[in-house]
Amino acid sequence: MKTIIHSFLILFFAVTLTASAQAQNSPVGAWKAVTGNTNSLMLITPGYFSITAYDDSGFKSTMGGTWDDNGITNIEFNSADSAQVGTRPEANVTFEGDNIVTTLGDKTTTWTRIDDGNAQMAGVWQITGRENNGAMNAMQPGDRKTIKILTGTKFQWIAMNTKTGQFFGSGGGAYTFENGAYIEKIEFFSRDNSRVGATLTFKGSVSGNKWDHSGKSSKGDPIHEEWTRK
User: Fold this and answer.
1) In what order do the strands lie in the sheet with 94-96?
2) Tens-place pLDDT, residues 190-230
3) Considering the entire predicted model, what is its pTM?
4) Which helix (DSSP H) or strand (DSSP E) does residue 131 occupy?
5) Is residue 155 within 8 Å of 172, Cβ to Cβ?
6) Do residues 120 and 205 make contact, with C-beta atoms less than 8 angstroms apart?
7) For site-directed labelling of 111, which of 27, 80, 130, 131 has its Cα 20 to 30 A away?
8) How far apart are CA 206 and CA 208, in angstroms?
């Protein structure tokens, strides 16, 4: 099953990105597709993307990385197959109105737009600081990193090692950011499916490319972090 899901996701996103240079439609934003009992969520920001599959039983797989107008430039994480990290797959796609339609073999899948990626928080953020004993400690950049992708209404965080291909975890769902309150509703969580449906409320403020983020984690532990827009 993992191989089938992985092959679908790799091929699908490659076709989406290749088409972006050929169509007036912008792929930036959040997209969804349903195949049987499996939900797929695709988040696209300028230069970065993720695709995640999950169902009622829990998280199934996720992958993503960097792209430009010529297609995928680098797969940075793939929970189903770490050997795909560092690769650059290719394929094709078509746009029909505001939908993306893919035909893979004899199977056609239509992806429906959730949002257009237009929001203050939209983009890719990387954690660069964490408070410890009352002081914000800078985190040194390296191959192991945690990022958070946000579109207009959806989010996903991923912890990974881009050199070894190791995948450490991911979660995501819907978010809002209003009047200094950043609120997440979890729709999938690779580490603990019992957290799906939970709502987490944080204090948040953005100054330039810095995001100050504080509250309690999904485990209830207090956190205070600094994230930097990539």
Assistant:
1) 71-78, 58-68, 48-55, 38-45, 29-35, 107-115, 99-104, 94-96
2) 999 999 999 999 999 999 999 999 999 888 899 999 999 99
3) 0.88
4) strand 123-132
5) yes
6) no
7) 80
8) 6
